[in-house]
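Hi R.,

As promised, here are both runs. First protein below:
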Amino acid sequence: MSKLLPKGHKKLLNAWAFYDWANSVYNLTISSAVFPIFWGALTIVRNDQGDIVNDTVHFLGYDFNNDSLISYVTALAFLTVSIISPLLSGIADYVGNKKNFLKFFCYLGAISCIGLYWFNLEHLWFGLLCYFLALIGFWASLVFYNSYLPDIAFPEQQDAISAKGYSLGYIGSVILLIINLVMILKYDWFGFESEGVPTRLSFIMVGVWWIAFSQYTYYYLPKGNKKDVLTKAVVFNGFKELKMIWKALQNDIKLRRYLSAFFVYSMAVQTIMLIATYFGIEELDWGEQNPTTGLIISILLIQLVAVLGAYLTSKASSKFGNIQTLIVINFIWIGICVYAYTITTPSEFYVTAAIVGLVMGGIQALSRSTYSKLLPEDAIDTASYFSFYDVSEKIGIVIGMFSYGIIAQVTGSVRYSILFLILFFVVGLVLLFRVPRTE
């Protein structure tokens, strides 16, 4: 049974932020670190010199570039989330049971992560299905998680607690990734014959961690204010509310322009975060260094620096303003893309990873809290407003991942995809400059 606490209560805020600790292990282990390396080892054939001789995967009667296939599955999952989240968030707000939806997608994602243990090329459809459902579970749960922010925190608390959530997520995910790294690299210590089994066990550990630590959040988060019983008419209530929000945006210039900017620059940010490890696997010359070790070290570096980045961004926004800070961060992202296009060595990749970490945590936390602060003061159905926010983000990712996949398929190189993403940051910057600065 949950414990009810008043809005702004420190324990309630900490419980909300702790869900980032629980679920961010998915984002790090599955999206960024272990699974991309596992996928590369599964689908890439190299010669004795370590050069790639085949990276084609046969699936559903077609031959795909391995990067393109996983990017298409990822894009399809995000497209699914963007379609179902308005429906679900509308229902959740209407019947007042956001927490039940949060739990459902948490458990769907966690159980699907556990299913990745049985991923192999003989049953590729099953592995990709688990990957697909895990991604849906993670991102759909965030619709409901993010929508709690204006419900549990006052405007002056939102920047700090949003940053704290991301920081907890980075720290928790780094702890589990270090445990996974030790198991994989020192597999003989644990009695394994190779790194294959501990790699697969890391997927199970993600699922168990996610479910176990989320219970603390569920204990304190309110269920929601019940408005009515679920009827047939309510099923389409989410789309009706999104239409109302769309109309409301026409009269809210500041929020509308901010959402336009967020849609474009987030498209690039999220795509880079999803493809970074695949870039490291295929585009860098690792020499005698173990690519698995190097890639996971670089990802750990990103996570640790991101904690500092989220904190510094929160401080900068309080001094210079949210929009001004986001403009500076987008300029930094453009510089990162230009530099990443030229890198070929692990040391250059580490430098890029450190800078990415600094701005990654900042742009995520600040984007979420900026949107929350721009919502109308009389907004009641916050889940629908955040559904609109999340749909914008997900459709952007779909466009970004499909663009990446097509460019990788045509050119055979991820490098050109990185260069193409600069365009999104430039457009995002132009749109950010158009957001009114008045408080």
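And here is the second one, sequence first, then its structure tokens:
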Amino acid sequence: MTGEWLTAWDRSAGARTAAELFRSRFGAEPDGVWSAPGRVNLIGEHTDYNGGLCLPIDLPHRTYVALRRRDDDVLRLVSEREHAMWTGTADQVHPGADLGWAAYAAGVAWALNASSDLAPGVRIAGFDAAVTSCVPYGAGLSSSAALESAVAVALNDVCDLGLGGSDAGRAVLAAACVRAENEIAGAPTGGMDQSSSLRAQPGHALLLDTRDGTVRHVPFDLSAHGLALLVIDTRAEHQLADGQYANRRATCEAAAARLGRATLREIGAGAELEAALAVLSEPGDGEAQTTVKRVRHVVTEIARVEQFVALLDDGRVAEVGPLMDASHVSLRDDYEVSCAELDLAVTVARSSGALGARMTGGGFGGSAIALVEAGSVDRIATEIADAFGEAGFTAPVFLVADASAPADRDTD
């Protein structure tokens, strides 16, 4: 059995495809084409909504948006993945509205208009947009944030918001994208995905401190060390708006409140964690024991991010594998967001020679990553695909992740 390989589009070709879709559906020229990447998180899972640290990189796989500003409040959205055009008006976009996929695009305009960071009197009205993408959908690689971020930089340009040229401005755009996903699309995610798509740099991982929104760009060039990051889309579809993600977030927030902390970030690993778990633990109470496991994952995962970054800073890239392995075990056993396909991908990658492997993204399906020697990529992918076939799973899709560029304009 062989898995499918997903190659990123050439950016000029992706931009042409989006522009052609716009012309065919709207009969006019777009003001331009903008694109934003999906992301893969190296380590730091389910820490972003707990005030913690995470370490994503941007993928070369991007979502392209051809967009044209309108002078009225009408919104028209088309996608290569959706047959019908979505048409509405700005006042139809609000929390609780059932907008389908359009929530991720129209919600960004709503959130920017609601932001206190826009200049007085500035308001985004209507627009037409056509969307194409090579970011795999439902793979836990943040296709939703890629769409939001591409729309955000497009609206920034056509409405002269002046936010795209600095990290501070891009942080404002990222915050609007998070509000769109949380309040309009109804997915209670943290801010890692949008921050990565808008604020990362090529050749670097983004160390994001979600407590204060600060970032540090950590050099991440695997090829210089003879390594590669293999991404395995298990094809077990990843969904965030089904209640499981929200349940875990609520558990963590309740635990922090009980411990008298603003977030779980304030709890250190080691003795401080053990003391906190003793407070939360109630023998014989299943719900309390679940809370203990959730808190233990978050606190130890934040510590793993710190250790991972320290190794990268020291140039000891090949030594991060055990931290990836430990992260997966914690996500599987304490946070309980893995699945059979993710576990199989990780197990086979490790037995085939990967230096480390873990699920990535929110879980409940989606993708795994494996740190491998560059010359072993094809062999390890084949062994994973064979194992999926033997298990009766859908054939996986593979890609190799290089730390790539953030959201930006592709055409004039």
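A quick note on the second one: The first helix runs from residue 11 to 26. Let me know what you think.

Best,
J.
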